[in-house]
Design goal:
Layout: H1 3-16, H2 29-36, H3 40-52, E1 56-59, E2 63-66, E3 87-88, H4 92-101, H5 122-135, H6 150-162, E4 172-175, H7 177-189, E5 195-200, H8 204-212, E6 216-223, E7 227-228, H9 230-239, E8 242-247, H10 261-274, E9 278-281, E10 306-311, E11 323-326, H11 331-341, H12 347-358, H13 361-387, E12 393-394, E13 402-406, H14 413-422, E14 428-429, E15 442-446, H15 453-465
Parallel strand pairs: 5-6, 5-8, 8-9, 9-10
Antiparallel strand pairs: 1-2, 3-6, 4-11, 6-7, 10-11, 12-13, 13-15, 14-15
């Protein structure tokens, strides 16, 4: 057990035995460093772990306090048990039915896939966008068309370097959001009929892409906290002609799972041994709750086999539709696919985001956003504890803004979805995250909106629907 894990377990035991009472302030980072002779980094990682387990909660400008959630009787969802056979997908109609139903403006968006637009610096970005439009020159429209703005690619490469990954601007292709990055990566690597390994449950956009490209999917058992089961994946790689893996190893949608550094390293090594590329959907990487960004799989990639897809839509600029893929040895093939599909991404929006990153405002924005998301998650978990019938399990991710709820087997999530929607509340039912429409007793909830009394009443309605 690592030092920070020992420290976290010790504090958790003090909470359980009553030495630290609910609502009581826990020792400050400085105090704990002095008392235990440990580094601030160890204390912060211990507090991250305790927060993710529901033992403590952060309060702005005040410190950490014992959370009432530690008494929750809700456990963690079980590891998925998908079929080990491949399948052709037919999920789009169900996904579109759910998405269309959630678009009504008067619906409480607990089923949404997006953060509240009020959490982004839209006014500041608008000023940069206006300046970019005024500064445009004729040569800007023909320069760096398919790979995108060199200035922006350099800014993204610098952020990779800070996260421990050596990424050249030459391997980065700017795209119209992460979905285009993921789609053109799949097009560059696969042909109709190929087999793709995916998580179970998986992001419905992944399922729709596989369906649209005429591919087959094979699902890998996935832990709600730790991500893909590497033993199961190794067995599937030995038995099946898997062409590519599409995984989300950082705050996975819908589970919120986060793979450890050791597991990522082993994942990259395993896939390199089988010569299978990894398409990494990494759009939530910046939304971690602690003081240390999780390492990406790209940081362990030595052969260029990881295609890391990111976006500013979830962290900075929704609606600007600026994403990218760090495509490794596949950069040229991906750039050609980009040129064949949309030629280039909006030049003014690329220039605006590059200017915003250059001035250093992004990190200040992210710091505030992460604190807010952690508080909103704690408020959502407390609302579930108050209003949901007993017998449910729920994730407590260390980042992102989704909660995955596993209800008793007798509950039909589609029926709960329709009943809640009739009451003006949206949720995302489990079957839209499955190649075989499994997880019929599961829900995904969004806690990416400022938590208000209206959201609390919405959770109460979900509890009544269940």
């Amino acid at each position: 057990m690592k030092l920070y894990e020992q420290l976290a377990d010790n504090i958790a035991e003090r909470v359980r035995d009553g030495s630290l009472a609910t609502g009581q302030r826990v020792p400050s980072v400085r105090q704990l460093c002095a008392d235990r002779g440990v580094s601030p980094a160890s204390v912060m990682r211990a507090y991250e772990l305790l927060e993710s387990r529901g033992f403590i909660e952060a309060r702005p400008r005040s410190g950490y306090y014992v959370s009432p959630l530690w008494r929750s009787r809700a456990g963690a969802p079980r590891v998925s048990r998908p079929s080990l056979r491949s399948t052709h997908l037919d999920v789009s109609e169900l996904v579109f039915e759910v998405i269309e139903a959630m678009r009504a403006p008067d619906v409480v968006p607990l089923g949404s896939a997006f953060l509240s637009p009020t959490l982004f610096p839209l006014a500041s970005l608008g000023k940069h966008l206006g300046a970019a439009g005024r500064a445009l020159e004729a040569r800007d429209f023909a320069q760096d068309l398919a790979p995108g703005s060199l200035d922006l690619r350099r800014q993204i490469a610098q952020r990779y370097l800070r996260a421990g990954a050596q990424v050249s601007p030459e391997e980065i292709v700017i795209t119209s959001g992460a979905m285009e990055a993921l789609n053109i990566s799949m097009q560059a690597l696969t042909r109709p009929g190929d087999l793709v390994a995916i998580e179970s449950p998986a992001f419905y956009g992944c399922l729709q892409t596989i369906e649209a490209l005429g591919l087959r999917a094979i699902e890998v058992p996935t832990h709600a906290r730790d991500g893909v089961d590497l033993g199961a994946l190794a067995s599937l790689l030995d038995k099946h002609p898997i062409r590519v893996c599409w995984f989300m190893t950082t705050f996975q949608n819908p589970l919120g799972a986060l793979m450890s550094d050791d597991a990522r390293k082993e994942l990259v090594r395993l896939l390199a041994r089988h010569e299978v590329p990894l398409i990494e959907d990494n759009v939530y990487a910046e939304l971690y709750f602690g003081d240390r960004r999780p390492r990406s799989s790209k940081s362990f990639d030595r052969s260029g086999g990881v295609l890391d897809c990111g976006s500013f839509s979830k962290s900075l600029a929704p609606g600007y539709r600026v994403g990218w893929v760090a495509a490794g040895r596949y950069a040229q093939a991906v750039a050609r696919r980009k040129f064949m599909s949309t030629i280039t991404t909006s030049i003014p929006t690329q220039m605006a985001i590059a200017a915003y990153l250059r001035q250093g405002a992004f990190d200040r924005h992210l710091k505030a956003l992460r604190r807010l998301l952690a508080r909103q998650q704690a408020a959502a978990l407390a609302a579930l504890e108050r209003h949901l019938p007993r017998g449910y399990n729920v994730t407590r991710p260390a980042g992102g803004y989704f909660l995955w709820i596993e209800l008793p087997e007798s509950v039909d999530a589609i029926a709960v979805f329709r009943r809640a929607l009739a009451g003006g509340v949206s949720i995302a039912p489990g079957p839209i995250f499955s190649a075989r429409r499994q997880f019929r007793n599961c829900l995904r909830l969004n806690c990416g909106y400022p938590w208000t009394a209206g959201f609390d009443r919405a959770v109460q309605k979900i509890g009544a629907s269940i």
